[in-house]
Amino acid sequence: MLTGSCLCGSVRYEIDRPPVVAGYCHCTRCQHRTGSAAACSALLEPGSLRVTAGEELLGSWDPPDGWSKVFCTACGGALWATNGEIYGVRMGTFDEDPGIRPSYHQFVDYAAPWEPIPDDGLARYPERRPVS
C-alpha cells in the first residue's frame, strides 16, 4: 500500500497496487503548473487510487484538450492528473519510496531551454509517450 498527501497534508490518498510506469513530462503546461522544467509522475492501474482524507478540498483545472490537473485548494499542492480512468500521481507526493523509477521523457520537443534534459539513457519522445 502506497500513501501520499498534498503539501499541507489535508488531502491524503492511498494506492493499493504498484504504479505501472513513471516518467518525466516536459510539456509547457507541466512547466507552468509546476514552475519547473518538468513534472515527474507515476501512472496507476485504473481503480487503484482512493482518497482517504480531504476529498472536499480537491480542485481541478480541466483544459479542453488535456487531462484534468487535480490539486489541494488549501495549499495549492499538485496531486495528480487524470483522464477520468488513468491517474498520473506526482511522485513528490508519495510518503515513501514508491518502488518505481522514471523510464522516459515525453514532450521533449518543448523542454525548457534553460534546463537541458540529462543524458540519463531514458527513452525520449518528442510528444506524448505511446501507450503500449
Please describe what this structure looks like.
By secondary structure, this protein is mainly beta. The protein has one domain (2-114): Beta Complex (Metal Binding Protein, Guanine Nucleotide Exchange Factor, Chain A). Helix content is 5%, strand content 35%. The chain is built from one helix and eleven strands; from the N terminus they run βββαββββββββ. The strands form two sheets. It has an eight-stranded mixed sheet. The chain has a three-stranded antiparallel sheet with strand order 1-2-5, with no helix packed on it. A hairpin with a 6-residue loop joins strand 6 and strand 7. The longest helix has 7 residues, at 28-34.
Q: Which secondary structure elements does this structure contain, and how are they paired or packed?
A:
Layout: E1 2-5, E2 12-15, E3 21-25, H1 28-34, E4 39-43, E5 49-53, E6 58-61, E7 68-72, E8 78-82, E9 87-90, E10 104-106, E11 123-124
Parallel strand pairs: 3-10, 10-11
Antiparallel strand pairs: 1-2, 2-5, 3-4, 4-9, 6-7, 7-8, 8-9
What is this entry, summarized?
This protein has 132 residues and is mostly beta strands. It is built from one helix and eleven strands; from the N terminus they run E-E-E-H-E-E-E-E-E-E-E-E.
